[in-house]
Design a protein that fits this description.
The protein has 668 residues and is of the alpha+beta class. It has 22 helices and 28 strands. Helix 11 crosses helix 13, helix 12 crosses helix 17 and helix 13 packs across helix 15. The termini are far apart.
């Protein structure tokens, strides 16, 4: 009866409780761990109850006695104190934060790396007992107070982390890749502002899979043992922090390093140019440029980076020579760990992750010069990009900013650590200029952000030993004229579009724009951007309807008047709201008039002009996100308010645009 009555209270099957009780060798068995407070209170109420049973026995006189017994559940079942860690943000930064096991020991991320720091020392009471095991006088008792563990303040910014995760989640879904990853770094300090892996997991239920994943396992693995093994592997893949623990072929993003080495060593003539015919012969093989139809023609180093020209960079690498190339490969940190304060950082091994100097022949040098035939970790790559951004200094990345005691006093604070200077400030400035041209006019044009100068490089690489599996990537920093952040975006094994310039650059653009706005970095518009700049709505409330109409018509706005009043009671959009030039403004001239609404249409997969025309016809203003300087090439791919939602007439919808023209960089 006890087992049967207890089962629904604690949510454990009756048979499970019964089996545990019958098979244990001890007088103590754990039925459930880490229960919630509400469940604990239900158990406490249950333990106040009792049950009766009849005990039958034969006394000394040979009589059969039936004795009624009353036993309280509390004499059999107890509640022990337990500890459970709560993670209020769920999935946010899950792979960075990590989680603890049922023993409250860190198993992943910061929880594992700083386990001893976070744990503290439990308190205890030491007492003396006599021969009957009774506690003796308090004079024999010693009390050791608990010592609270140290608290950690991370460099991860919750807002920037959400920007990164939201953008990654969408490209993860759209690309159907096996993973999407990103990191945002403070280029001056090496502090990690955001780091994300998709798909990730909920820290409060790290062992849980989605319904779709569970269904897939059931359908794929009918054998339970095989299914359990596959389930474990799936969980381990979710928990693993790709940014620090895995390596990938960087592809053309690595051309930043080759270019920096060439400029620093001054191995190219001032009038250096290379005529790309679409391919180049190296030893006994032909290596293709992604532009096979005639190549890129005559280019200098800057245009070679803009066009992501493999033959040009092979030539640059060969001009450097393997000794100098390897010197910079090593200096930029690709032969060692970055030293980030997260567990399980991959240690590069010569002959496994990269070519040693001794094993580097002309073919290995040539392929390495444009980012193929070796692997790096994402944290290595973004650290190298930051070195160009900050004037040539390779920083040690970190995620813990401060350690605090129980009174929130600072015990220690992480100081930025310069590992070494890898290039001069002059070289960094020259390479930055090249990288900015990649975004304004080259393969990275989809990373363009109006008012913020972005310097970056696209990459698309075939995975070593794979058959048609790719990694798309884009690395950048901004603003190019005064860098604050570096961003690296990767998509592993995307389907359909595979180029970093197609699928990773729009993600980086969204993250850069939102992050810099959040950080309060002021936009600096050039003349072309000013021509296309949105305008601010004037204050119209209180004006006569005729005066408001005259003002708006003079400024080129389209106007809708609602009501028969002679004065403007309210307006949509409100005063000082950003709207496109020639946008729509609604004037309400009666207090109780019903607000005009409209259903948001699907504005994706359309040209810029078509979106503007369609939106205006439905009464919506459009904010363009994308490289509007190349308007004729743009196609919309996303919008900030989903189609079908109802909004007020005159509302502003942000529509995201990208170009598929001139953004390919893969030569496969």
């Amino acid at each position: 009866d006890l087992c049967r009555n207890l089962a629904p209270v604690i949510g454990v099957e009756f048979d499970t409780i019964k089996n545990k009780a019958n098979t244990t060798k001890y007088n103590y068995v754990v039925l459930k761990k880490q229960i919630e407070l509400a469940e604990k209170e239900r158990v406490a109420e249950f333990l106040k109850k009792s049950y009766k049973y009849t005990k039958t026995y034969v006394n000394d006189d040979g009589e059969v006695i039936n004795e009624e017994k009353k036993i309280y559940y509390s004499s059999v079942v107890g509640i022990d104190p337990d500890v459970k860690r709560y993670y209020p943000y769920g999935n946010l930064a899950a792979n960075v934060i990590g989680f603890t096991g049922t023993d409250d020991v860190g198993r992943l991320g910061v929880e594992l790396k700083y386990d001893s720091t976070l744990t503290g020392t439990p308190g205890r009471i030491v007492t003396a007992r006599n021969g009957k095991s009774d506690v003796m006088s308090e004079q024999f008792e010693t009390i050791h107070d608990p010592i609270q563990g140290t608290s950690l303040v991370l460099t991860i910014d919750e807002v920037i982390q959400r920007y990164l995760e939201d953008s990654l989640r969408q490209v993860y879904i759209d690309s159907k890749g096996v993973g999407a990853y990103g990191v945002v770094m403070d280029v001056e300090t090496g502090a990690i502002l955001a780091m994300a892996n998709m798909g990730n997991f909920n820290l409060n239920s790290p062992d849980a899979l989605t319904e779709e994943e569970e269904k897939m396992l059931l359908e794929t693995y009918p054998d339970k043992d095989e299914r359990d093994s596959a389930r474990d592997n799936l969980l381990y893949a979710k928990w693993r922090n790709f940014i620090v623990s895995d390596s990938y072929e960087p592809g053309s993003v690595f051309k930043i390093v080759t270019a920096a080495a060439a400029v620093e060593e001054n191995v190219l003539r001032e009038d250096f140019s290379y005529n790309c015919t679409g391919k180049i012969t190296v030893a006994d093989r032909i290596i293709q440029c992604h532009n096979r139809d005639g190549g890129h023609g005559v280019q200098d180093l800057k245009h070679g980076l803009m066009n992501s020209c493999n033959p040009l960079f092979i030539t640059v690498g060969q001009t450097l020579g393997k000794e100098k190339f390897f010197e910079y490969f090593e200096a930029f940190g690709f032969t060692e760990k970055t030293g980030i304060d997260l567990p399980a950082e991959l240690k590069p091994v010569a002959g496994v992750n990269y070519h040693s100097l001794e094993s580097m022949g002309i073919v290995e040098l040539s392929s390495s010069s444009f980012g193929q035939s070796f692997q790096v970790t994402p944290i290595q790559m973004v650290t190298a990009i930051s070195a160009v951004a900050n004037g040539g200094y390779l920083m040690q990345p970190y995620v813990v900013a401060r350690q605090l005691d129980e009174n929130n006093n600072v015990i220690s604070e992480t100081q930025p650590h310069i590992r070494r200077q890898v290039i001069s400030e002059e070289t960094a400035a020259e390479v930055t200029d090249m990288m900015e041209a990649v975004v304004t006019s080259g393969t990275g044009k989809n990373a363009y952000v109006s008012g913020y100068r972005v310097a970056g490089k696209t990459g698309t690489s075939q995975k070593l030993g794979s058959d048609g599996e790719y990694v798309a990537s884009f690395g950048c920093f901004a603003p190019a004229n005064d860098p604050e952040i570096a961003v690296l975006i990767l998509v592993d094994e995307p389907e359909g579009q595979i180029n970093g310039g197609q699928i990773c650059t729009p993600v980086a653009a969204q993250v850069v724009e939102k992050t810099l706005e959040y950080m309060g970095v002021e936009r600096q518009y050039n003349d072309k951007e000013l021509e296309k700049l949105d305008t601010l709505t004037p204050s119209l409330v209180g004006k006569s309807t005729d005066d408001a109409l005259a003002l708006l018509n003079e400024k080129g706005f389209k106007v809708k008047v609602v009501g028969e009043g002679e004065k403007v009671i309210s307006q949509m959009p409100s005063y000082n709201h950003s709207v496109p030039q020639n946008g729509i403004i609604v004037l309400y001239t009666e207090k109780d008039v019903e607000r005009v609404t409209v259903e948001v249409p699907d504005l994706t997969m359309m040209t810029l002009s078509a979106v503007n025309k369609y939106a205006l016809s439905t009464g919506l203003n459009i904010k363009v996100s994308g490289n509007a300087l190349n308007a004729a090439e743009l196609i919309s791919y996303d919008q900030n308010i989903e189609a079908g939602q109802t909004v007020e007439y005159g509302s502003t919808i942000t529509v995201y645009f990208k170009s598929d023209t001139g953004v390919n960089d893969y030569a496969g």
